[in-house]
Design goal:
The chain has 487 residues and is an alpha/beta fold. It is built from 20 helices and 15 strands. The strands form six sheets. The chain has a four-stranded parallel β-sheet with strand order 10-9-12-13, with helices on both faces. It has a three-stranded parallel β-sheet with strand order 11-15-14. Helix 18 (410-421) links the parallel strand 14 and strand 15. Helix 1 crosses helix 4, helix 1 (7-25) runs parallel beside helix 9 and helix 11 packs across helix 13.
Length: 487
Protein backbone atom coordinates (compact mmCIF):
# COMPACT_ATOMS: atom_id res chain seq x y z
CA UNK A 1 0.00 0.00 0.00
CA UNK A 2 1.31 3.44 -0.92
CA UNK A 3 2.21 5.89 1.81
CA UNK A 4 3.17 9.53 1.43
CA UNK A 5 5.95 11.03 3.49
CA UNK A 6 3.98 14.08 4.53
CA UNK A 7 0.96 16.29 3.80
CA UNK A 8 2.95 18.47 1.39
CA UNK A 9 3.61 15.50 -0.86
CA UNK A 10 0.02 14.29 -0.51
CA UNK A 11 -1.49 17.65 -1.54
CA UNK A 12 0.91 17.95 -4.49
CA UNK A 13 -0.10 14.45 -5.57
CA UNK A 14 -3.81 15.27 -5.28
CA UNK A 15 -3.44 18.30 -7.55
CA UNK A 16 -1.44 16.33 -10.13
CA UNK A 17 -3.99 13.50 -10.00
CA UNK A 18 -6.97 15.78 -10.58
CA UNK A 19 -5.24 17.60 -13.45
CA UNK A 20 -4.35 14.20 -14.96
CA UNK A 21 -7.89 12.88 -14.54
CA UNK A 22 -9.44 15.83 -16.34
CA UNK A 23 -6.82 15.63 -19.11
CA UNK A 24 -7.50 11.92 -19.61
CA UNK A 25 -11.24 12.59 -19.77
CA UNK A 26 -10.79 15.52 -22.15
CA UNK A 27 -12.48 17.92 -19.72
CA UNK A 28 -9.49 19.99 -18.59
CA UNK A 29 -10.51 23.30 -20.13
CA UNK A 30 -14.12 23.21 -19.00
CA UNK A 31 -13.55 21.82 -15.49
CA UNK A 32 -10.20 23.29 -14.46
CA UNK A 33 -11.83 25.73 -12.03
CA UNK A 34 -13.39 22.87 -10.06
CA UNK A 35 -10.05 21.48 -8.86
CA UNK A 36 -9.57 23.85 -5.86
CA UNK A 37 -12.95 22.85 -4.45
CA UNK A 38 -12.15 19.16 -4.93
CA UNK A 39 -8.76 19.42 -3.22
CA UNK A 40 -9.99 21.78 -0.49
CA UNK A 41 -13.70 21.01 0.04
CA UNK A 42 -13.95 22.97 3.29
CA UNK A 43 -15.53 24.45 5.23
CA UNK A 44 -12.52 24.05 7.53
CA UNK A 45 -8.99 24.43 6.10
CA UNK A 46 -6.40 21.67 6.45
CA UNK A 47 -3.43 23.80 7.43
CA UNK A 48 -3.96 27.44 6.47
CA UNK A 49 -5.85 30.27 8.11
CA UNK A 50 -8.95 29.83 5.99
CA UNK A 51 -10.36 27.74 3.15
CA UNK A 52 -10.13 30.70 0.78
CA UNK A 53 -6.35 30.91 1.14
CA UNK A 54 -5.97 27.17 0.74
CA UNK A 55 -7.92 27.29 -2.51
CA UNK A 56 -5.85 30.26 -3.71
CA UNK A 57 -2.70 28.21 -3.11
CA UNK A 58 -4.23 25.24 -4.94
CA UNK A 59 -4.86 27.50 -7.93
CA UNK A 60 -1.11 28.20 -7.99
CA UNK A 61 -0.33 24.49 -7.72
CA UNK A 62 -2.61 23.82 -10.67
CA UNK A 63 -0.77 26.49 -12.64
CA UNK A 64 2.54 24.71 -12.00
CA UNK A 65 0.95 21.37 -12.92
CA UNK A 66 0.02 22.96 -16.25
CA UNK A 67 3.59 24.06 -16.91
CA UNK A 68 3.92 27.21 -14.84
CA UNK A 69 5.21 30.57 -16.02
CA UNK A 70 6.22 30.16 -19.67
CA UNK A 71 8.43 33.26 -19.42
CA UNK A 72 10.49 31.70 -16.65
CA UNK A 73 13.02 29.21 -17.97
CA UNK A 74 13.61 27.71 -14.52
CA UNK A 75 11.93 24.40 -13.79
CA UNK A 76 11.45 25.39 -10.14
CA UNK A 77 9.09 28.19 -9.10
CA UNK A 78 7.93 29.77 -5.85
CA UNK A 79 4.21 29.80 -5.03
CA UNK A 80 3.96 33.30 -3.63
CA UNK A 81 0.64 32.78 -1.86
CA UNK A 82 1.98 29.71 -0.07
CA UNK A 83 5.26 31.37 0.91
CA UNK A 84 4.33 33.23 4.08
CA UNK A 85 4.51 30.94 7.07
CA UNK A 86 8.27 30.90 7.76
CA UNK A 87 9.82 33.06 10.49
CA UNK A 88 10.52 36.52 9.09
CA UNK A 89 13.43 37.34 11.39
CA UNK A 90 16.35 34.98 11.05
CA UNK A 91 18.29 35.98 14.19
CA UNK A 92 16.41 36.30 17.49
CA UNK A 93 17.70 36.88 21.02
CA UNK A 94 16.37 34.11 23.27
CA UNK A 95 15.67 33.89 27.01
CA UNK A 96 19.24 32.67 27.47
CA UNK A 97 20.49 36.26 27.20
CA UNK A 98 22.10 37.17 30.56
CA UNK A 99 22.32 40.91 29.98
CA UNK A 100 26.09 40.72 30.41
CA UNK A 101 28.41 43.69 30.73
CA UNK A 102 30.61 42.79 27.76
CA UNK A 103 27.91 43.37 25.13
CA UNK A 104 29.97 41.52 22.53
CA UNK A 105 26.92 41.15 20.30
CA UNK A 106 26.53 44.93 20.19
CA UNK A 107 30.18 45.47 19.31
CA UNK A 108 30.08 42.76 16.62
CA UNK A 109 27.06 44.15 14.79
CA UNK A 110 28.18 46.18 11.74
CA UNK A 111 24.84 47.98 11.25
CA UNK A 112 23.91 48.98 14.80
CA UNK A 113 20.91 46.63 14.82
CA UNK A 114 21.21 45.65 18.49
CA UNK A 115 19.79 47.67 21.36
CA UNK A 116 19.19 46.94 25.05
CA UNK A 117 16.09 47.05 27.22
CA UNK A 118 16.69 46.51 30.92
CA UNK A 119 20.12 45.10 30.09
CA UNK A 120 18.76 42.45 27.68
CA UNK A 121 19.70 42.53 24.01
CA UNK A 122 17.15 42.86 21.21
CA UNK A 123 17.66 42.81 17.43
CA UNK A 124 15.97 45.39 15.23
CA UNK A 125 14.77 43.32 12.24
CA UNK A 126 14.54 46.43 10.07
CA UNK A 127 18.28 47.00 10.42
CA UNK A 128 19.53 43.41 10.63
CA UNK A 129 21.41 42.20 7.55
CA UNK A 130 21.56 38.58 8.79
CA UNK A 131 25.37 38.43 8.84
CA UNK A 132 25.38 36.26 11.98
CA UNK A 133 28.22 38.08 13.71
CA UNK A 134 26.12 38.66 16.84
CA UNK A 135 25.42 34.95 17.16
CA UNK A 136 29.09 34.09 16.73
CA UNK A 137 30.15 36.55 19.41
CA UNK A 138 27.59 35.71 22.12
CA UNK A 139 29.29 33.76 24.95
CA UNK A 140 25.96 32.23 26.04
CA UNK A 141 24.75 31.06 22.61
CA UNK A 142 21.69 33.13 23.37
CA UNK A 143 20.97 34.14 19.76
CA UNK A 144 19.06 31.62 17.66
CA UNK A 145 19.46 31.24 13.93
CA UNK A 146 16.16 30.35 12.29
CA UNK A 147 17.11 30.13 8.62
CA UNK A 148 14.31 29.32 6.22
CA UNK A 149 14.44 25.64 5.22
CA UNK A 150 14.54 26.51 1.51
CA UNK A 151 17.57 28.79 2.00
CA UNK A 152 19.32 26.26 4.22
CA UNK A 153 18.78 23.51 1.67
CA UNK A 154 20.06 25.47 -1.34
CA UNK A 155 23.70 24.53 -2.09
CA UNK A 156 24.39 27.55 -4.30
CA UNK A 157 22.71 30.36 -2.30
CA UNK A 158 20.23 30.82 -5.14
CA UNK A 159 17.39 31.65 -2.76
CA UNK A 160 16.91 35.06 -1.21
CA UNK A 161 14.07 36.88 0.53
CA UNK A 162 12.54 39.94 -1.12
CA UNK A 163 11.02 43.04 0.48
CA UNK A 164 7.71 41.22 0.88
CA UNK A 165 9.48 38.45 2.78
CA UNK A 166 8.83 35.98 -0.05
CA UNK A 167 11.41 33.52 -1.34
CA UNK A 168 13.00 34.43 -4.68
CA UNK A 169 15.09 32.13 -6.88
CA UNK A 170 18.11 33.48 -8.73
CA UNK A 171 18.04 31.48 -11.96
CA UNK A 172 21.69 32.24 -12.65
CA UNK A 173 22.70 30.43 -9.46
CA UNK A 174 20.03 27.69 -9.39
CA UNK A 175 21.12 24.17 -10.38
CA UNK A 176 17.54 22.75 -10.31
CA UNK A 177 18.51 20.09 -7.78
CA UNK A 178 15.08 20.40 -6.15
CA UNK A 179 16.40 20.55 -2.58
CA UNK A 180 14.20 23.57 -1.85
CA UNK A 181 11.19 21.76 -3.30
CA UNK A 182 11.73 18.80 -1.00
CA UNK A 183 12.66 20.79 2.11
CA UNK A 184 9.99 23.51 2.13
CA UNK A 185 7.55 22.45 4.91
CA UNK A 186 4.67 24.32 3.28
CA UNK A 187 5.20 23.16 -0.29
CA UNK A 188 5.74 26.75 -1.37
CA UNK A 189 8.38 25.75 -3.92
CA UNK A 190 7.35 23.37 -6.69
CA UNK A 191 8.62 21.99 -9.98
CA UNK A 192 6.75 22.59 -13.23
CA UNK A 193 5.04 19.62 -14.81
CA UNK A 194 4.51 18.35 -18.37
CA UNK A 195 1.88 15.75 -17.47
CA UNK A 196 -0.82 17.30 -19.64
CA UNK A 197 1.43 17.28 -22.72
CA UNK A 198 2.45 13.69 -21.95
CA UNK A 199 -1.17 12.57 -21.56
CA UNK A 200 -2.16 14.26 -24.83
CA UNK A 201 0.78 12.52 -26.55
CA UNK A 202 -0.33 9.14 -25.19
CA UNK A 203 -3.90 9.79 -26.32
CA UNK A 204 -2.65 10.65 -29.81
CA UNK A 205 -0.57 7.46 -29.94
CA UNK A 206 -3.71 5.36 -29.44
CA UNK A 207 -5.11 6.32 -32.84
CA UNK A 208 -1.97 7.43 -34.70
CA UNK A 209 0.12 4.38 -35.57
CA UNK A 210 3.01 6.61 -36.59
CA UNK A 211 3.39 7.87 -33.03
CA UNK A 212 5.09 5.49 -30.62
CA UNK A 213 5.77 6.69 -27.10
CA UNK A 214 8.56 4.98 -25.18
CA UNK A 215 9.02 5.22 -21.43
CA UNK A 216 12.54 5.21 -20.05
CA UNK A 217 12.43 4.29 -16.37
CA UNK A 218 15.23 5.26 -14.01
CA UNK A 219 16.63 2.35 -11.95
CA UNK A 220 15.62 4.27 -8.81
CA UNK A 221 12.06 3.12 -9.57
CA UNK A 222 12.98 -0.14 -7.84
CA UNK A 223 12.97 1.70 -4.51
CA UNK A 224 9.62 3.44 -5.00
CA UNK A 225 6.71 1.08 -5.67
CA UNK A 226 7.76 -1.54 -3.16
CA UNK A 227 4.17 -2.72 -2.66
CA UNK A 228 4.26 -4.17 -6.18
CA UNK A 229 6.74 -6.11 -8.29
CA UNK A 230 8.81 -4.23 -10.86
CA UNK A 231 7.14 -6.22 -13.66
CA UNK A 232 3.74 -5.02 -12.44
CA UNK A 233 4.96 -1.41 -12.45
CA UNK A 234 6.17 -1.85 -16.02
CA UNK A 235 2.81 -3.31 -17.09
CA UNK A 236 0.99 -0.43 -15.40
CA UNK A 237 3.09 2.07 -17.35
CA UNK A 238 2.33 0.26 -20.59
CA UNK A 239 -1.38 0.36 -19.78
CA UNK A 240 -1.16 4.16 -19.87
CA UNK A 241 -0.45 3.84 -23.58
CA UNK A 242 3.32 3.58 -23.79
CA UNK A 243 4.54 1.47 -26.70
CA UNK A 244 7.41 0.03 -24.69
CA UNK A 245 9.32 0.49 -21.45
CA UNK A 246 13.11 0.60 -21.52
CA UNK A 247 15.53 0.79 -18.61
CA UNK A 248 17.67 3.90 -18.20
CA UNK A 249 20.06 1.38 -16.68
CA UNK A 250 20.81 0.25 -20.23
CA UNK A 251 22.03 3.78 -20.86
CA UNK A 252 24.05 3.47 -17.66
CA UNK A 253 25.75 0.40 -19.10
CA UNK A 254 26.54 2.36 -22.26
CA UNK A 255 27.93 5.31 -20.32
CA UNK A 256 29.92 3.15 -17.91
CA UNK A 257 31.68 1.69 -20.96
CA UNK A 258 32.16 5.06 -22.62
CA UNK A 259 33.29 6.82 -19.44
CA UNK A 260 35.85 4.11 -18.66
CA UNK A 261 37.37 4.53 -22.12
CA UNK A 262 37.32 8.33 -21.82
CA UNK A 263 38.98 8.10 -18.42
CA UNK A 264 41.75 5.87 -19.73
CA UNK A 265 42.39 8.14 -22.71
CA UNK A 266 42.46 11.47 -20.87
CA UNK A 267 43.41 10.96 -17.24
CA UNK A 268 47.15 11.26 -17.82
CA UNK A 269 46.71 14.82 -19.07
CA UNK A 270 43.70 15.82 -16.93
CA UNK A 271 44.93 14.24 -13.67
CA UNK A 272 41.31 14.06 -12.49
CA UNK A 273 37.90 13.49 -14.07
CA UNK A 274 34.39 13.92 -12.73
CA UNK A 275 31.24 12.03 -13.67
CA UNK A 276 28.58 13.67 -15.85
CA UNK A 277 25.49 11.57 -15.09
CA UNK A 278 23.91 13.92 -12.54
CA UNK A 279 22.84 17.16 -14.29
CA UNK A 280 22.67 19.08 -11.01
CA UNK A 281 26.26 18.06 -10.22
CA UNK A 282 27.45 19.17 -13.65
CA UNK A 283 25.65 22.49 -13.20
CA UNK A 284 27.13 22.84 -9.70
CA UNK A 285 30.65 22.53 -11.08
CA UNK A 286 30.01 25.00 -13.88
CA UNK A 287 28.50 27.62 -11.57
CA UNK A 288 30.56 27.20 -8.37
CA UNK A 289 33.81 25.65 -9.61
CA UNK A 290 34.21 26.87 -13.21
CA UNK A 291 37.96 26.27 -13.01
CA UNK A 292 37.17 22.52 -12.93
CA UNK A 293 34.73 22.51 -15.84
CA UNK A 294 37.34 20.98 -18.14
CA UNK A 295 37.52 17.99 -15.79
CA UNK A 296 33.87 17.00 -16.36
CA UNK A 297 33.41 13.85 -18.42
CA UNK A 298 32.17 14.58 -21.95
CA UNK A 299 29.81 11.62 -21.77
CA UNK A 300 26.08 12.33 -21.97
CA UNK A 301 23.89 11.03 -19.17
CA UNK A 302 22.40 7.50 -19.27
CA UNK A 303 18.98 9.04 -19.98
CA UNK A 304 20.28 10.76 -23.11
CA UNK A 305 22.27 7.72 -24.23
CA UNK A 306 19.38 5.26 -24.12
CA UNK A 307 16.97 7.77 -25.64
CA UNK A 308 19.32 8.29 -28.59
CA UNK A 309 19.53 4.50 -28.92
CA UNK A 310 15.72 4.28 -29.10
CA UNK A 311 15.44 7.10 -31.62
CA UNK A 312 18.17 5.57 -33.78
CA UNK A 313 16.11 2.37 -34.11
CA UNK A 314 12.61 3.91 -34.36
CA UNK A 315 12.24 7.16 -36.29
CA UNK A 316 8.63 7.54 -35.11
CA UNK A 317 9.51 7.33 -31.44
CA UNK A 318 8.75 9.88 -28.74
CA UNK A 319 10.53 9.42 -25.45
CA UNK A 320 9.40 10.16 -21.89
CA UNK A 321 11.92 9.72 -19.07
CA UNK A 322 10.42 8.67 -15.73
CA UNK A 323 12.54 9.23 -12.65
CA UNK A 324 13.07 10.96 -9.29
CA UNK A 325 15.01 13.93 -10.64
CA UNK A 326 13.79 17.50 -11.12
CA UNK A 327 17.07 18.56 -12.74
CA UNK A 328 16.36 16.16 -15.62
CA UNK A 329 13.54 18.49 -16.67
CA UNK A 330 16.12 21.19 -17.28
CA UNK A 331 18.70 18.83 -18.79
CA UNK A 332 16.49 17.96 -21.78
CA UNK A 333 16.25 21.67 -22.61
CA UNK A 334 20.01 22.19 -22.89
CA UNK A 335 21.03 23.34 -26.34
CA UNK A 336 23.26 20.41 -27.27
CA UNK A 337 20.81 17.85 -25.84
CA UNK A 338 17.52 19.30 -27.03
CA UNK A 339 15.40 16.76 -28.90
CA UNK A 340 17.05 13.70 -27.36
CA UNK A 341 14.25 13.28 -24.82
CA UNK A 342 10.80 14.75 -25.39
CA UNK A 343 9.46 14.92 -21.82
CA UNK A 344 10.41 14.13 -18.24
CA UNK A 345 7.91 12.72 -15.75
CA UNK A 346 8.74 12.34 -12.06
CA UNK A 347 7.74 9.42 -9.86
CA UNK A 348 5.28 11.75 -8.12
CA UNK A 349 3.69 12.55 -11.46
CA UNK A 350 3.65 8.91 -12.57
CA UNK A 351 1.78 7.97 -9.40
CA UNK A 352 -0.80 10.69 -10.03
CA UNK A 353 -1.35 9.65 -13.66
CA UNK A 354 -1.65 5.94 -12.78
CA UNK A 355 -4.26 6.72 -10.14
CA UNK A 356 -6.11 9.13 -12.44
CA UNK A 357 -6.32 6.30 -14.99
CA UNK A 358 -7.49 3.95 -12.19
CA UNK A 359 -4.60 1.56 -12.79
CA UNK A 360 -3.72 -0.39 -9.65
CA UNK A 361 -0.27 -1.75 -10.35
CA UNK A 362 -0.37 -4.23 -7.46
CA UNK A 363 -3.11 -6.10 -9.37
CA UNK A 364 -1.42 -5.94 -12.79
CA UNK A 365 0.18 -8.92 -14.47
CA UNK A 366 3.96 -8.86 -14.61
CA UNK A 367 5.62 -7.63 -17.79
CA UNK A 368 9.14 -8.60 -18.77
CA UNK A 369 11.88 -6.06 -18.13
CA UNK A 370 15.43 -7.09 -18.86
CA UNK A 371 17.42 -4.45 -20.72
CA UNK A 372 20.35 -3.84 -18.42
CA UNK A 373 23.07 -5.40 -16.31
CA UNK A 374 23.54 -5.44 -12.55
CA UNK A 375 26.03 -2.59 -12.83
CA UNK A 376 23.72 -0.40 -14.90
CA UNK A 377 20.93 -0.84 -12.37
CA UNK A 378 23.01 0.13 -9.33
CA UNK A 379 23.71 3.56 -10.88
CA UNK A 380 20.63 4.56 -8.87
CA UNK A 381 22.54 4.71 -5.61
CA UNK A 382 25.74 6.34 -4.48
CA UNK A 383 28.80 4.33 -5.45
CA UNK A 384 27.09 2.47 -8.26
CA UNK A 385 28.63 4.53 -11.02
CA UNK A 386 32.16 4.08 -9.65
CA UNK A 387 31.61 0.34 -9.30
CA UNK A 388 30.38 0.12 -12.89
CA UNK A 389 33.37 2.00 -14.30
CA UNK A 390 35.73 -0.19 -12.25
CA UNK A 391 33.96 -3.28 -13.58
CA UNK A 392 34.53 -2.15 -17.19
CA UNK A 393 38.19 -1.29 -16.53
CA UNK A 394 38.82 -4.71 -14.99
CA UNK A 395 36.73 -6.70 -17.48
CA UNK A 396 38.29 -5.02 -20.53
CA UNK A 397 41.78 -5.22 -19.00
CA UNK A 398 42.33 -1.48 -19.30
CA UNK A 399 45.78 -0.77 -17.85
CA UNK A 400 45.13 2.40 -15.86
CA UNK A 401 45.27 3.46 -12.22
CA UNK A 402 41.68 4.07 -11.16
CA UNK A 403 41.09 5.68 -7.78
CA UNK A 404 37.50 6.91 -7.42
CA UNK A 405 35.73 8.82 -4.69
CA UNK A 406 31.94 8.52 -4.41
CA UNK A 407 30.33 11.71 -3.12
CA UNK A 408 27.05 11.07 -1.34
CA UNK A 409 25.14 14.33 -1.47
CA UNK A 410 26.02 17.92 -2.26
CA UNK A 411 28.13 18.52 0.87
CA UNK A 412 30.48 15.67 -0.01
CA UNK A 413 30.57 16.88 -3.63
CA UNK A 414 31.52 20.36 -2.46
CA UNK A 415 34.26 19.02 -0.19
CA UNK A 416 35.77 16.86 -2.96
CA UNK A 417 35.71 19.72 -5.46
CA UNK A 418 37.36 22.08 -2.98
CA UNK A 419 40.21 19.60 -2.56
CA UNK A 420 40.42 19.00 -6.30
CA UNK A 421 40.68 22.73 -6.92
CA UNK A 422 43.89 22.90 -4.88
CA UNK A 423 45.21 19.51 -6.11
CA UNK A 424 44.83 17.87 -2.71
CA UNK A 425 42.19 15.24 -3.51
CA UNK A 426 43.43 11.69 -3.00
CA UNK A 427 41.49 10.37 -6.01
CA UNK A 428 41.47 10.72 -9.78
CA UNK A 429 37.76 10.15 -10.45
CA UNK A 430 34.91 11.98 -8.70
CA UNK A 431 31.48 10.39 -8.77
CA UNK A 432 29.15 13.26 -7.93
CA UNK A 433 25.58 12.76 -6.77
CA UNK A 434 23.87 15.92 -5.52
CA UNK A 435 21.06 14.05 -3.76
CA UNK A 436 21.90 12.13 -0.60
CA UNK A 437 21.86 8.43 -1.36
CA UNK A 438 22.15 9.08 -5.08
CA UNK A 439 19.18 9.10 -7.46
CA UNK A 440 17.09 7.21 -4.92
CA UNK A 441 17.18 10.38 -2.83
CA UNK A 442 15.88 12.54 -5.68
CA UNK A 443 13.62 15.45 -4.77
CA UNK A 444 10.65 13.94 -6.65
CA UNK A 445 10.95 10.48 -5.08
CA UNK A 446 7.90 9.13 -3.31
CA UNK A 447 9.96 8.34 -0.24
CA UNK A 448 13.55 8.58 0.95
CA UNK A 449 15.32 6.20 3.27
CA UNK A 450 18.32 3.90 3.87
CA UNK A 451 16.29 0.82 2.91
CA UNK A 452 15.92 2.23 -0.61
CA UNK A 453 19.57 1.34 -1.28
CA UNK A 454 18.83 -2.30 -0.49
CA UNK A 455 15.91 -2.28 -2.93
CA UNK A 456 18.22 -1.08 -5.70
CA UNK A 457 20.76 -3.82 -4.97
CA UNK A 458 18.00 -6.46 -5.00
CA UNK A 459 16.77 -5.07 -8.31
CA UNK A 460 20.31 -5.22 -9.69
CA UNK A 461 20.67 -8.87 -8.71
CA UNK A 462 17.53 -9.72 -10.71
CA UNK A 463 19.34 -8.77 -13.93
CA UNK A 464 19.97 -11.69 -16.24
CA UNK A 465 22.91 -9.87 -17.79
CA UNK A 466 25.47 -9.69 -15.00
CA UNK A 467 28.13 -7.67 -16.83
CA UNK A 468 28.14 -4.49 -18.91
CA UNK A 469 29.50 -6.25 -22.00
CA UNK A 470 26.77 -8.88 -21.73
CA UNK A 471 24.13 -6.16 -21.69
CA UNK A 472 25.54 -4.33 -24.72
CA UNK A 473 26.47 -7.26 -26.95
CA UNK A 474 23.41 -6.93 -29.21
CA UNK A 475 23.72 -3.15 -29.71
CA UNK A 476 25.93 -1.17 -32.06
CA UNK A 477 26.69 1.71 -29.70
CA UNK A 478 29.61 2.97 -31.79
CA UNK A 479 27.13 4.82 -34.02
CA UNK A 480 25.55 6.71 -31.10
CA UNK A 481 26.51 10.27 -30.21
CA UNK A 482 27.68 9.72 -26.65
CA UNK A 483 29.73 12.87 -26.12
CA UNK A 484 28.46 16.33 -25.35
CA UNK A 485 29.43 19.19 -27.58
CA UNK A 486 32.21 21.30 -26.12
CA UNK A 487 32.59 25.01 -26.69
Amino acid sequence: MRKFENQVQLIKYEVLREVSRLALEGRLDESLDTIPSIIDPGPEPRTRCCIHKERAITVERVRLALGGNKNNDNIVEVLETACDACPINRFVVTEACRGCLAHRCYDACPVDAIHFVEHRAYINPNKCIECGKCKESCPYNAISDVMRPCKRACPTSALSINEDKKAVIDNEKCIQCGACVYQCPFGAVMDKSSIVEIIELLKKAKYDKNTKVYAIIAPAISSQFTYAKIGQVVNGIKMLGFHNVVEAALGADIIAKHEAIEFAQNIENQKIMTSSCCPAFVSFIKKIYPMLESKISHSVSPMIAVSRLIKSTDENSKVVFIGPCIAKKMEIKEEDLSGSVDYVMTFEELTAVLDAAEIKIEYCDEAVLDNASFFGRIFARTGGLSEAVRHVIETDNIDIAYKPISCDGIKECDKALKLARVNRLDANFIEGMVCTGGCIGGAASLHHGPKDRNEVDKYGKLAIEKGVNDSLRVFDIDKLALERETK
